[in-house]
Amino acid sequence: MERPCVRVPREAGEETRQALAEAGLLDDEYEIVVEDGALYLPVTDREAASEGYEVVTRDVPVHDTQQTPADRLGFDPSYERLGDVAIVDEDDPERAREIGDAILDSDLPVRAVIDRASKVKGDLRVRDWSVVARADDGENDRPVTETLHREYGFEYLLDLSQVYFSPRLATERHRVTEQVAAGERAVDMFAGVGPFAVPMAARGATVVGVDLNPVAVEYLRENARRNGVADRVTAIEGDVRDVAADYADWADRIVMNLPHSADEFLDAAVTLAADSEGRRPSGSRPKADDDCVIHYYDIQHEDDPFGPGERAIREAAAPAGYDVDVLTRHVVRSYAPHELNVCLDVRLSR
User: Fold this and answer.
1) Where are the alpha helices (DSSP H) in 33-85?
2) What is the pTM of this model?
3) Phi, psi at residue 285, to the nearest 5°?
4) Structural contact between residues 3 and 42, judged by C-beta atoms closer than 8 angstroms
5) Does residue 122 come out as left (phi exceeding 0), alpha (psi in the -120 to 50 range) or beta?
6) Which domains does the chain have, with CATH numbers?
7) pLDDT of 5-19, one tens digit each?
């Protein structure tokens, strides 16, 4: 069956396999193929995998010993997995139930199948779900939409009906958190359950994570404990615009992953940005100058995906006397026809 596959030299195969598995991108329904000195590793998400690897389409065999949903249905259904929950997006409830039953009857480690029942909505960025199939797993007191997701060596407990979470951003989160150095002070302005905050803390940063959603904040605290970084993560429930004054001139790094409206929070980001060497804690990393790196996410038309965000950042930074240096203009993924989800990595300095 033709599937998207990451192609790497054979000697890099095991390292790549482990990285894809940790990111939740390795498609274990299909065999890994070796041919002409290269390994072809099937992946579940072409777009996410292509951020760090060469992705090609090729024929790969299904695991002989594994019963797949396609074996039950006679066609290859569209779904994604988040921990032990499978997610479908079907308009026809009968078809959704048919796919859900096939997923549960397969050899996939799935205990529930849920169908998107609404778009992401409201300030808390949650959506409605319909449960189309559920295994009798003896955990009836556990919310059917709660799952444990593993990503790049970290694990995140979350309830999809109560919080926003996108597994498709795993590669992007890894790209950002790999830039963090020990001793930094970081603010995640829209932290959710912690997929930026936890890895930044694991790299030695002191992290403040803010979110309006009280359930997300509780999961953030739990995930900080699960991953052994609770002593370096402060989770705050509230609007970051109200919190910013308490951490004025504090942050070496800021994550602004609210792409539809991040521009409304730029004044708060400028307030948070560190500008005084004297405010740095003892033992923190030395810096050549007073600056702050901001990872600013935006969704714009493909004709000018970076311009609106860059202009908004400069307009917010200028009154505070900051120069803006654009470090990276990065396309994260396609969002809709002719619209791109992008990230601007910028440095504010005086």
Assistant:
1) 46-49, 69-73
2) 0.80
3) -65, 140
4) yes
5) left
6) 2-59 (3.30.70.2580), 69-144 (3.30.300.110), 149-349 (3.40.50.150)
7) 999 998 888 889 988
